[in-house]
């Protein structure tokens, strides 16, 4: 049993033990290492100022992605190489991204700039961001209040980082990879028990060990991407004594398309699902593109979005109308539950003591099925939904033979509008039908007013998506 | 080898991109340094019954707790009216108002200590909205008025008359670096304060006042800010005092860094406005008379609110001539954090009202709004006197309007949009051109001054210190360019030093877009004094009795890093050699320059005068598309044309123009402050408060600077650029309104600002609800 987190930061090896492993990465970098280039603004993953690169072993070396360091705990980052703004160029020099930002006036006050430099360097590493739409998509996790972004985009489009500035050149991966491989299979437990406090953080390497931990510590908080708990801790919540971290469990990180189904391990990141669905499930991909931001999608997981049980979780309406199936495992076995039966109330769901969500299986739309997912938020990108919906229909000619309707942000859970579904089946798909369906659906939802939208707004959106769906599927639909 | 006019990078660009530029939270900790925070009022309005810090003091690591009773000097300060308490005493006036300062050895102890403080209040019903304040007759300061002509008469006799009300929301500055200060004791009872402030002099003064020190005992330093936008003009004071108080009491260094949520909850913002308007106009859309009664939500103390309202009145006309006009303004006194400066300073609120009026007139007359704006735009030589009597001199607005309309292909796109809207049932597009005229100068006369210290060293390098504070706007690089050009040397030989009250005293805040105007001009004055001395010295040096050249300072030229006599240009002395020689000859190589803007004055009582040195002008065309079913809006294209004179640094200025525009776009679209009925801010972090993100930037964004050749009064023939472009974004709001007008032509449109998706859908739904309900098959909907 290993009792430390193994982590490299800008090429330097660190072993972190006990309570210290519960520090956020940003606090560790700034306070413990004194590397102050990484800035903290919102402490909730909504501005990107704290972006760093996380490098993880992959088939052909180390792959780097940008993450928000303020909402990542050190214990999640075992066997990774973290690169901060201090580490992307040689001392006293600038890399291609940094130089382009200087030349294009990409910084004004400079507080967001290190974060942008990191997000852009991540794109360079992965060979993307060369065209403006891709570059914009890659920068949605970074807020700037001064520049209006144009100069930053100009910098991004002119950036060329030299071979010597690539992470593999600056930090030869062999030693690190060897170190990671040596430590890949051991279970890890970070335990500290003293007068002041007790804390146990378990980071098992296999599903079996994870289920054993859960059997021993049924009250343990299960952490995967921590994109939600990370925020809550920064805003004052304390972590519980016992944590079960899933980041090292390899069995949970597989995602694939098999036999018309999307099968995702619970710890698959949204970035992986995004690339998997790009060609095969364009409608889901459209939502994933505006789900959080790259930094969030690089950490956030499929299972986390289900277990967080939020009525505004962006993935759920899709699962609801496709009748997705959840696989739940415990030491004593596994069972399967339809997503439509899983939620029982606000943040309440059918998960028994000792059970872990391990897999989500989503049947994909078949031929002659129409699918449309809606995410309405105040801002297009990096915004929590004010309203979500999914409409799936099967047609025979113009007649609706099957209808599934799901709504989010209009009740304590994501919900199916069963009465409206029943109304639709057997009718012709016409504007009048959809207008009527909208009115029926309004009676099935119970939205509240909050900071993201009023009750009236949500009711009106519920009403409106039906005709919108209809018009969007007309061959002569006129759109910008 | 001139550098003025060249797009040199920002002074700190290299430090920014490498993360090595230090902000206050980044400065190395001193031995024994304390972490400082505060505990604020739990209620928006009430009486403090009990403050208990006993448990907090017992928390391990907590060193001290201070309340108003621990303040040795004055606890109440304020620039216009001294009504702003440092720490609340007896009564609390807004949620989160600082009551107790806590100092601790580490962040964790500070957090636990803060949680252990008990503040009990007898809660009273707060007044939160403008409507409630009007009802309760609660105002801050006097009513202000600017008027001309016979308004009632012309309203009554006008061929058309429309009246209405208009609301615009507040806006959070959302500087990325939250309020921050570091203080430590100096010698002889001094206190040194590093503050993220736009106004080092103000921090020096209030810290001295609260601690009971002389101003000579307080040094305030600001190297840079991580954004400010007006939010650190007055409101950097409270955190700075907190740090200074702890440093003074404990003798240890003390640092305050607000977290984003606290910062957003307790500091003031752009003022929300409510306006009653009444206008008369003719068939061509000429505004014959306009009356506006503006009400701003000032919050709990005066802060800068009266000045902000004054600028609203001075910009109620925006770019348009008003023959008969009456503007009055009242600041509402409410239980919100004191609202304060924010880029535009009341100007945007006034200008949005008249742009809304012009759109309304166009809809009423069935004219294109551009036609109505053309009919009203300030003229050249005629129809060019503002309501307060200042002539709009060297006016380029008509030319700007025409150039922009042509460059942006306005007429053709108007046709296209009409056709699209007739066909598309899913979306509706809108187009609008709005004008902008923004007065440059502080409307408080005495603030229009600046001083600068220029130190030339014997190797020909120079340090410049001014009262200007660097918040990202690039004032430093611009001053550096001006100074380098004065001596005709490479700008790399000039460095801008941290702003400090030790070097520059009695400075004005870096605000009102005038940072470069005032401080750059002062730096040039200092350079010229040094040059005068160097000229005399060089003249002697370069005199040549053999060829009959007598020493003549007026023939001495500074060029390309050297100095020569223009009668014998082949003999050149390198600048650094001249400096070395001059020092040995006991010539003073340092100077302090002073500049005061000439010819400006404004009488607040009569509402008349010449408050502005000049106007920055421009116009913008925005095109938007709205989803008819969700209200979601995208900005498709923006074209803007702005006259900023001859740009000192086009790279920096372009950044100000685009950044300002996008910030304004945020104000009129998605930035929405939501409070509950207890006066608690619900949108207090970027999760719930949405400033524009990169994907909100219009895919087509054409930015042009108007080639101005007659602007000579200001430094380097430039014009101020900080605030004006923000107001070009009113075009986005006007375009949204224009799009909605296609939903039901001729109907009244009650669109507020910000035009969020929710607000747009509300207006569209209301317009559609008037139409007959459709017969729905197979169901009966209750209530239909």
UniProtKB/TrEMBL annotation, chain A:
InterPro entries: 2Fe-2S-bd (IPR002888), 2Fe-2S-bd_dom_sf (IPR036884), 2Fe-2S_ferredoxin-like_sf (IPR036010), 2Fe2S_fd_BS (IPR006058), Ald_Oxase/xanthine_DH-like (IPR016208), Beta-grasp_dom_sf (IPR012675), CO_DH_flav_C (IPR005107), CO_DH_flav_C_dom_sf (IPR036683). Its EC number is 1.17.1.5. Pfam families: CO_deh_flav_C (PF03450), FAD_binding_5 (PF00941), Fer2_2 (PF01799). Keywords: FAD, Flavoprotein, Iron, Metal-binding, Oxidoreductase. It is an enzyme of class 1 (oxidoreductase). Residues 194-367 form the FAD-binding PCMH-type domain. Gene3D superfamilies: 3.10.20.30, 3.30.465.10, [2Fe-2S]-binding domain (1.10.150.120), CO dehydrogenase flavoprotein, C-terminal domain (3.30.390.50), Uridine Diphospho-n-acetylenolpyruvylglucosamine Reductase, domain 2 (3.30.43.10). It comes from the Bacteria. One of its GO terms (molecular function) is nicotinate dehydrogenase activity. This is Nicotinate dehydrogenase FAD-subunit. The lineage of its organism: Bacteria, Pseudomonadati, Planctomycetota, Planctomycetia, Pirellulales.
TrEMBL record, chain B:
It comes from the Bacteria. SMART domains: Ald_Xan_dh_C (SM01008). GO terms for molecular function: iron ion binding; molybdenum ion binding; xanthine dehydrogenase activity. Gene3D superfamilies: Aldehyde oxidase/xanthine dehydrogenase, a/b hammerhead (3.90.1170.50), Aldehyde oxidase/xanthine dehydrogenase, molybdopterin binding domain (3.30.365.10). Keywords: Molybdenum, Oxidoreductase. The keyword Oxidoreductase applies. InterPro entries: Ald_Oxase/Xan_DH_a/b, Ald_Oxase/Xan_DH_a/b_sf, Ald_Oxase/xanthine_DH-like, AldOxase/xan_DH_MoCoBD1, AldOxase/xan_DH_MoCoBD2, AldOxase/xan_DH_Mopterin-bd_sf, Xanthine_DH_Mopterin-bd_su. Its cofactor is Mo-molybdopterin cytosine dinucleotide. This is Xanthine dehydrogenase molybdenum-binding subunit. It is an enzyme of class 1 (oxidoreductase). Residues 18-125 form the Aldehyde oxidase/xanthine dehydrogenase a/b hammerhead domain. It comes from Bythopirellula polymerisocia. The gene is xdhA. NCBIfam families: xanthine_xdhB. Its EC number is 1.17.1.4. The lineage of its organism: Bacteria, Pseudomonadati, Planctomycetota, Planctomycetia, Pirellulales. The keyword Oxidoreductase applies.
């Amino acid at each position: 049993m290993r009792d430390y987190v193994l982590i490299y930061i800008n090429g330097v090896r660190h072993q972190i033990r006990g309570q210290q492993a519960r520090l956020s990465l940003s606090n560790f970098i700034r306070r413990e290492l004194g590397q102050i280039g990484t800035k903290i603004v919102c402490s909730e993953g909504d501005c990107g100022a704290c972006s760093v690169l996380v490098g993880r072993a992959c088939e052909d070396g180390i792959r780097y992605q940008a993450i928000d360091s303020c909402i990542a705990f050190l214990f999640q980052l075992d066997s990774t190489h973290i690169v901060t703004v201090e580490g992307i160029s040689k001392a006293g020099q600038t890399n291609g991204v940094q130089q382009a930002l200087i030349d294009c006036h990409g910084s004004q006050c400079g507080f967001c700039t290190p974060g942008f430099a990191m997000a852009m360097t991540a794109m360079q590493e992965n060979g993307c961001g060369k065209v403006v739409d891709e570059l914009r998509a890659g920068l949605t996790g970074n807020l700037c209040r001064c520049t209006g972004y144009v100069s930053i985009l100009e910098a991004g489009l002119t950036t060329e980082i030299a071979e010597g500035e690539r992470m593999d050149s600056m930090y030869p991966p062999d030693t690190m990879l060897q170190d990671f491989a040596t430590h890949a299979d051991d279970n890890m437990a970070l335990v500290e028990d003293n007068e002041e406090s007790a804390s146990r953080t378990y980071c098992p390497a296999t599903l079996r060990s994870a289920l054993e931990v859960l059997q021993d510590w049924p009250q343990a908080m299960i952490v995967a991407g921590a994109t939600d708990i990370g925020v809550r801790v920064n805003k004052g919540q304390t972590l519980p004594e016992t944590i079960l971290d899933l980041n090292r469990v390899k069995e949970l990180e597989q995602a694939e398309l098999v036999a018309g189904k999307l099968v995702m391990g619970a710890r698959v990141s949204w970035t992986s699902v995004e690339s998997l669905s790009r060609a095969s499930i364009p409608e889901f991909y459209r939502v994933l593109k505006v789900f959080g931001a790259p930094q969030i999608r690089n950490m956030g997981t499929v299972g986390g979005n289900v277990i967080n049980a939020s009525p505004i979780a962006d993935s759920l309406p899709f699962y609801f109308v496709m009748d997705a199936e959840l696989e739940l495992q415990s030491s004593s076995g596994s069972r399967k539950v339809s997503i439509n039966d899983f939620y029982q109330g606000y943040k309440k769901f059918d998960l028994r003591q000792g059970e872990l969500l391990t897999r989500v299986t989503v049947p994909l739309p078949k031929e002659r099925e129409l699918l449309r997912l809606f995410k309405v938020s105040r801002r297009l990108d990096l915004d929590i939904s004010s309203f979500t919906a999914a409409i799936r229909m099967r047609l025979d000619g113009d007649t609706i033979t099957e209808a599934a309707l799901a709504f989010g942000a209009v009740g304590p859970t994501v919900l199916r509008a069963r009465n409206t579904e029943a109304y639709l089946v057997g009718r012709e798909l016409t504007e009048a039908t959809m207008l009527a369906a909208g009115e029926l659906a309004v009676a099935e939802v119970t939205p509240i007013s909050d900071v993201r939208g009023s009750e009236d707004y949500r009711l009106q959106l519920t009403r409106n998506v039906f005709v919108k769906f209809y018009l969007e599927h007309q061959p002569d639909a006129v759109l910008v | 080898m001139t550098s003025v006019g060249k797009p040199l990078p920002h002074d700190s660009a290299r430090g920014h991109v490498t993360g090595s530029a230090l902000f206050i939270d980044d400065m190395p900790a001193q031995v024994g340094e304390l972490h400082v925070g505060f505990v604020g009022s739990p209620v928006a309005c009430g009486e403090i019954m009990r403050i208990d810090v006993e448990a907090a003091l017992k928390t391990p690591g907590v060193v001290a707790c201070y309340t108003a009773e621990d303040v040795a000097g004055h606890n109440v300060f304020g620039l216009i009216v001294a009504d702003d308490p440092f720490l609340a005493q007896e009564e609390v006036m807004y949620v989160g108002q600082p009551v107790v300062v806590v100092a601790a050895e580490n962040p964790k102890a500070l957090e636990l200590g803060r949680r252990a403080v008990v503040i009990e209040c007898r809660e009273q019903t707060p007044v939160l909205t403008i409507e409630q304040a009007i009802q309760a007759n609660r105002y801050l300061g006097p009513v202000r008025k600017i008027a001309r002509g016979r308004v009632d008469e012309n309203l009554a006799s006008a061929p058309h008359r429309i009246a209405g009300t208009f609301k615009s929301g507040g806006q959070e500055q959302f500087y990325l670096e939250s309020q921050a200060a570091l203080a430590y004791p100096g010698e002889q009872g001094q206190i040194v304060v590093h503050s993220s402030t736009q106004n080092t002099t103000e921090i020096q003064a209030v810290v001295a006042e609260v601690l009971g020190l002389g101003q000579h005992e307080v040094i305030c330093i600001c190297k840079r800010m991580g954004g400010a936008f007006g939010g650190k003009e007055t409101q950097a004071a409270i955190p700075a005092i907190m740090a200074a108080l702890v440093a003074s009491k404990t003798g240890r260094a003390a640092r305050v860094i607000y977290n984003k949520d606290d910062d957003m909850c307790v500091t003031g913002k752009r003022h929300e406005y409510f306006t009653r308007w009444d206008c008369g106009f003719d068939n061509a859309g000429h505004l014959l008379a306009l009356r506006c009664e503006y009400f701003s939500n000032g919050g709990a103390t005066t802060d800068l609110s009266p000045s902000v309202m004054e600028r609203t009145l001075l910009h109620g006309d925006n770019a348009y001539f008003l023959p008969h006009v009456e503007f009055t303004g009242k600041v509402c006194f409410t239980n919100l954090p004191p609202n304060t400066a924010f880029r535009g300073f009341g100007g945007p609120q006034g200008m949005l009202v008249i742009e809304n009026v012009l759109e309304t007139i166009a809809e009423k007359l069935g004219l294109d709004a551009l036609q109505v704006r053309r009919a009203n735009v300030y003229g050249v030589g005629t129809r060019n006197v503002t309501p307060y009597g200042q002539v709009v001199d060297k006016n380029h607005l008509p030319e700007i309007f025409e150039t922009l309309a042509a460059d942006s292909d306005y007429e053709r796109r108007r046709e296209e949009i009409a056709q699209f809207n007739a066909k598309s049932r899913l979306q509706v597009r809108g187009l609008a051109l709005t004008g902008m005229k923004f007065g440059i100068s502080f409307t408080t006369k005495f603030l229009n001054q600046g001083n600068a210290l220029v130190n030339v060293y014997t190797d020909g390098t120079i340090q410049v210190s001014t009262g200007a504070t660097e918040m990202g706007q690039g004032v430093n690089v611009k001053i550096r360019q001006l100074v380098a050009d004065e001596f005709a040397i490479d700008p790399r030989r000039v460095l801008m030093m941290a702003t400090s009250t030790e070097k520059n005293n009695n400075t004005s805040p870096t605000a009102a877009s005038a940072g470069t105007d005032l401080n750059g001009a002062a730096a040039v004055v200092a350079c010229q004094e040094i040059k005068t001395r160097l000229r005399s010295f060089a003249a002697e040096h370069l005199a040549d009795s053999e060829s009959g050249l007598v020493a003549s300072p007026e023939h001495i030229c500074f060029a390309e890093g050297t100095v020569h006599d223009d009668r014998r240009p082949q003999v050149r002395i390198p600048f650094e050699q001249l400096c070395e020689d001059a020092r040995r000859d006991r010539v003073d190589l340092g100077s302090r320059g002073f500049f005061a803007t000439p010819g400006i004055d404004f009488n607040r009582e009569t509402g008349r005068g010449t408050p502005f040195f000049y106007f920055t002008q421009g116009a913008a065309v925005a095109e938007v598309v709205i989803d008819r079913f969700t209200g979601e809006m995208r900005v498709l294209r923006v074209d803007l044309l702005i006259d900023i004179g001859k740009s000192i640094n086009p790279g920096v200025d372009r950044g100000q123009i685009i950044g300002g525009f996008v910030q304004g776009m945020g104000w009129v679209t998605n930035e929405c402050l939501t409070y509950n009925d207890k006066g608690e801010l619900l949108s207090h972090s970027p999760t719930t408060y949405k400033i524009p993100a990169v994907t909100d930037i219009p895919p087509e964004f054409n930015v042009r600077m108007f080639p101005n050749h007659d602007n000579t009064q200001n430094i380097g023939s430039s014009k101020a650029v900080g605030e004006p472009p923000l107001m070009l974004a009113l075009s986005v709001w006007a375009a949204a309104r224009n799009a909605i007008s296609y939903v039901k032509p001729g109907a009244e449109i009650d669109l507020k600002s910000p035009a969020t998706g929710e607000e747009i859908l509300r207006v569209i739904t209301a317009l559609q609800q008037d139409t007959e309900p459709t017969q729905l098959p197979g169901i009966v909907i209750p209530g239909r």
